[in-house]
Design a protein that fits this description.
With 434 residues, this protein is α+β, with helices and mostly antiparallel strands. Strands 1, 3, 4, 5, 6, 7, 8, 9, 10, 11, 14, 15, 16 and 17 form a 14-stranded mixed beta sheet that branches. It has a three-stranded antiparallel beta sheet with strand order 2-12-13, with helices on one face. A hairpin with a 6-residue loop joins β10 and β11. Helix content is 25%, strand content 24%. The radius of gyration is 22 Å and the shape is globular. The structure holds tetradecanoyl-COA. Tetradecanoyl-COA binds next to β5, α5 and β6.
């Protein structure tokens, strides 16, 4: 999961005719008020007490820099796993959410639509679609018991949610069966009552019951201890709307018409043999992807079932394109993005933002820059307002040139019960969580 609803950074933005790297990258040296505030917040987080997280088998801030600690599992599997659920305050009860049920899926959708992740200024809130939730939660080999809700005992209203799905994740040379934890959400009226720790303990217990002992997750907040901290970048496709709704700002010395011209894209893709992925492409795409992901320190270990589930196109959920050589019919390149709209809070004209998020991209023959430009062109054809990408994998090589601008959101990656000696550079990460 994304865990961070980022919008375009407030610095100069990238609405310049020829954005040059030095002028638009905030990175460490950026002195904008937002970035200074964020760095102060983050340094405070490291000294903050974490009553719950300090009790968990995760990297602890006090151990930062202690290279004597070994990499790998922090604690051994337990010989016995608690059989009964954790206790909730008496007015609430556990429920297992059957995402196949239209009614339950609607309840989850409504809870998240009204209470899930917002940006720092509360202008946008993620609005995962029901189809997306079904796709995200019905992963190969999924356990229904890992889709956990909390209801009010009396009214039966769904008030909180957390999910896990099984995944094989490779850390260096070790493939580990993990849970990917996502969609942790507590109704706004029930915040700060320490419900989240109980939910995390309960999902942990249910993961342990399936004999899995590690997990991966992402969040916009700093917790003990990120294995990597990444940044979102945004490529305007509909700059006028993005500026009108406050997602981005008009750059200095820029007019609206110059901005629109700057972000204009060709009407059709340029790479010969560029087409939508089909079921028959699963073996070739799996080979491409496995080979590509093998270079990263942390990456999923995808087999053909995973590729079929995670990459075969589903309208308004996941888009995948590839390049089939017109001569040899070999599949040489691949790109994909998922659809995650955000609700626009309190705007008279617009209610939603249609955002594409870069997923997995592999270029072996076509330059990655050209492949991603074609992805932008398809996203524009499909009426997306913005195309987002993290600075992970090889994404940095195309972000600036394709006129992405840095966002104000950071995304921290975490592993549960697995120590990494040193924080990773985003370039070493080959994992995208939804
Ligand atoms: S990230 C998306 C998280 N969701 C949102 O941001 C939606 C909007 N916010 C909310 O719904 C609530 O604010 C949430 C917290 C539910 C986030 N990850 O109950 P509290 C710690 C982990 O009083 P609330 C995603 O889905 C916080 O530091 N912990 O707080 C991945 C404090 O602990 P400590 C978090 O605000 C989730 C404690 O909770 C997060 O009412 C991965 C306070 O609890 C967070 N995002 O509710 C979960 N935010 O005192 C971990 C706050 O120690 C999975 N907290 O600082 C771990 C692996 C489990 C499986 C293991 C298997 C082996």
């Amino acid at each position: 999961m994304v865990g961070s609803n980022s919008k375009s950074g407030s610095q100069e933005e990238n609405q310049r005719p020829n954005p040059d790297a030095d002028s638009i990258i905030p990175s460490e040296g950026d002195g904008s008020v937002e970035n200074i505030a964020r760095r102060v917040r983050e340094s405070l987080s490291v000294t903050k007490k974490h009553m719950f997280w300090e009790t968990q088998p995760v990297g602890q801030f006090k151990d930062l820099g202690d290279t004597s600690l070994p990499e790998g599992p922090i604690e051994n599997p337990k010989s016995e796993v608690k059989q009964e659920p954790y206790n909730l305050p008496s007015q609430y009860e556990w429920t297992t959410c059957d995402i196949d049920s239209e009614e339950t899926c609607m309840e989850v959708y409504n809870l998240l639509t009204n209470n899930y992740v917002e940006d720092d200024e509360n202008m946008f809130r993620f609005n995962y679609s029901k189809e997306f939730l079904r796709w995200a939660l019905r992963a190969p080999g999924y356990f229904r018991s890992w889709h956990i809700g909390v209801r009010a005992k009396e009214s039966k209203k769904l008030l909180a949610f957390i999910t896990g799905i099984p995944a094989k994740i490779r850390v260096r040379n070790e493939v580990v069966k993990m849970a990917e934890i996502n969609f942790l959400c507590v109704h706004k009226k029930l915040r700060s009552k320490r419900l989240a720790p109980v939910m995390i303990k309960e999902v942990t217990r249910r993961v342990h019951l399936e004999n899995m002992w590690q997990a991966a997750y992402t969040a916009g907040v700093v917790l003990p201890t990120p294995i990597a901290t990444c940044q979102y970048w945004h490529r305007s496709l509909n700059p006028k709307k993005l500026i009108d709704v406050g997602f981005s700002r008009l750059g200095a010395r820029m007019t609206m018409s110059r901005t629109i011209k700057l972000y204009k894209l060709p009407v059709s893709t340029v790479t010969p043999g560029f087409r939508k992925m089909e079921l028959r492409d699963v073996p070739a795409v799996t080979r491409l992807l496995r080979n590509y992901l093998s270079q990263f320190v942390v990456a999923p270990d995808f087999d053909e079932y995973d590729v079929e589930h995670w990459l075969l196109p589903i309208e308004n959920v996941i888009d995948s394109y590839l390049v089939e050589s017109p001569d040899t019919h070999e599949i040489t390149d691949f790109c994909s993005f998922y659809t995650l709209p955000s609700s626009i809070l309190g705007n008279q004209t617009y209610s939603g933002l249609k955002a594409a998020y870069s997923y997995y991209n592999v270029a072996t023959r076509t330059p990655l820059l050209q492949l991603m430009n074609d992805a932008l062109i398809v996203a524009k054809q499909k009426d997306y307002d913005v195309f987002n990408a993290l600075d992970i994998m090889h994404n940095e090589s195309f972000l600036r040139e394709l006129k992405f601008g840095p966002g104000d959101g950071q995304l921290h990656y975490y592993l549960y019960n697995y120590r990494i000696k040193q924080a990773l550079n985003p370039l070493e990460l080959g994992l995208v969580l939804l």
